[in-house]
Amino acid sequence: MRVLALEPYFGGSHRAFLEGWIRESSHRWTLLTLPPFHWKWRMRHAAFTLAEEAAAREKTGDGPWDLILATDMLDLAQFLGLAPPALRLLPAVVYFHENQLNYPVRREDPRDLHFGLTHFTTALAARQTWFNSDFHRRSFFAALKEMFRRLPKPRPFAQIDRLHESSQILGQGVEAQPVRGPRLPGPLRLLWAARWEHDKNPEDLFTALELLESSGADYRISVLGESFREVPSIFAQGRERFRHRIDRWGFLEDADEYHQALRETDVIISTAVHEFFGVSAAEAMAAGAYPLLPDRLAYPELLAGLPRELRDRHLYDGTAENLAQRLIGLAQKADGEGEESGREFFADPELSIQAVQRFLWPNLRPRLDAALTRVRREVDDG
């Protein structure tokens, strides 16, 4: 099957998702992308820009295509209205990595409703809508209804319910990692990896580290992630305060260095207040790191691959204080104190790998390919 993939923001998890899928997919792909900058402008212009490019590629023989795959950054209804006639007839699938209705903005901006409306019309224009987690799906449709309650009638609640019922959950793929060797001797090694923005709640990270420092525990910390124009000032303060504990800092351009950091990590932690999947946590778990994640958002789903009796030890209550308490306990185990000593406690990475097994590309890719095939078959069967 020939797939036309449209990605207005080809960077980060969006890029990793398409590249990981396409690399060994059974389908043939044409990939049209735009650079990962100025996301608001991308959502505004991508439809007519990519429609023009698709028309040009169709004339040069890249088509015909059997199906369109788009992401949440595209105004699909506008794209189909502007695309050549043959493309308008194709079934389209939209994959939601995130959405702008649930983003925890610091200041309310009425213009944000336009992005929510774009998401809604995109879902309406698609044959199927896919989400990277059930939490994302539930929160998206709840936010849609709340948005329309603030707007004049008529309100399309019945359409929203139909979209919800027909939507699917297909998680983000992550790369398998080399087998982890024995734990290196030394203090507890922590990793926090996320975009350096306020929705990842870095304040709780550094509050927890302050409490961990006060306890006298020995540890090392790597704070990784991509930063943009406005970086919360807490990062500069934290780097100065904990400079004697830092192993790695900032964005690692080299993929091998990033994967090495994952393999050296004892504990992957998150403090996010906004997360629809948790790619960095899943990547670290695929490398065998011990997850310690807040009991909210999509994180309980990420751990659903673990036996139920083991999940609670990997979820904290979402407060910096509880995170610090759990880290203090883990630091003691790394030092060989308590009932479970360090080497034994962290020596079994298979549990973490088991938890994310269904998201590893060799396992997820065939499911995604089959899901696209079913969409096309439904259309052909009428």
Description:
The protein is of the alpha/beta class and 382 residues long. The chain folds into two domains: 2-173 and 360-380, Rossmann fold; 188-359, Glycogen Phosphorylase B (Rossmann fold, 3-Layer(aba) Sandwich). It is built from 17 helices and twelve strands. The chain has helices spanning 12-23, 39-59, 76-82, 85-88, 112-125, 134-149, 157-166, 202-214, 234-241, 255-264, 279-286, 299-302, 308-311, 320-334, 342-345, 350-355, 361-380, and strands at residues 2-7, 28-33, 67-71, 92-96, 128-131, 168-169, 188-193, 219-224, 246-250, 267-269, 290-294, 315-316. Helix 2 (39-59) packs parallel to helix 3 and helix 3 crosses helix 5 (112-125). It is globular. The model is unreliable at 338-344 (pLDDT under 50).
Strand content: 5-15%
Cα-atom radius of gyration: 22 Å
- SS-based class: alpha/beta
CATH topology of the largest domain: Rossmann fold
Strand order of the largest sheet: 2-1-3-4-5-6
Task: List descriptors.
382 residues; alpha/beta; Rossmann fold; 2 domains; 6-stranded parallel sheet; 17 helices; globular
Sum this structure up briefly.
By secondary structure, the chain is α/β, with parallel strands linked by helices. The protein has helices spanning 12-23, 39-59, 76-82, 85-88, 112-125, 134-149, 157-166, 202-214, 234-241, 255-264, 279-286, 299-302, 308-311, 320-334, 342-345, 350-355, 361-380; strands spanning 2-7, 28-33, 67-71, 92-96, 128-131, 168-169, 188-193, 219-224, 246-250, 267-269, 290-294, 315-316.
